[in-house]
Amino acid sequence: MRSGVDAVGGVPYNDRDSREHLEFVFRLAEEWGKPIDLHLDFSDDPGTMAIADVVELTKSFGMQNRVAVGHLTALGSAEPETAQRLANDMAEAGISVFALPATDLYLNGRGDAARPRRGLAPVRTLLDAGVNVCFGTNNMRNAFTPFGTGDPLDIGLLLAQTAYMGSREDAAVVGMCTERAAEALRMTDYGIKSRIGCRACAYRRRGLRRANALLYDRPRERKVWRNGIKL
């Protein structure tokens, strides 16, 4: 912490006592004034979920809008009423969720001999509840995620297909790796934008009229600006 880290991380499902692990993470974050990033509930078993503890601790430590969780796949196997209730609680606590489809689809559902579960966070339920949902790669070309190039547009397309995001409203999925991800990181003026004072990443492609076309077409010819400088 003294070296200047940006956030306090945690992986409670790899510890013997999930609650004790989480309390330690929250105390450390409070002491150093840092946000929290958790790998959480990475399984198909909703009976092992710790997200309710995270919601409780977020509120009791006053960490609203400063906590992000990745995976949350166990919630995708929960009963709809349970998933909806917890999604509402997360929205109230300002907890962001990172869906990690390349890893989660590859590893989850393996224990199901029939009707294997998809093994994703319930993205649509979370979005409808008002949760800030983002997506990322998690890993790349290792034992957990053996495929991929690290291209966020590939991950976005994978998530859109596997989370049944085919409606006009769902087309905003591209914002989940731009503005929504920036919100989770507490960054301002960031995303696929073009305006004075925006220090963002801005993508441009000849003939591109809508940001969503980035996801649909996944163009090879891309231009990226940051702080007004073409990279």
TrEMBL record:
Signal peptide: none
Domain Amidohydrolase residue range list: 17-193
Gene Ontology terms, MF aspect: hydrolase activity, acting on carbon-nitrogen (but not peptide) bonds, in cyclic amidines
Matches recorded under Pfam families: Amidohydro_3
Coiled coil: none
Alphabetical list of SUPFAM superfamilies matching this protein: Metallo-dependent hydrolases (SSF51556)
Protein name from the UniProt record: Amidohydrolase 3 domain-containing protein
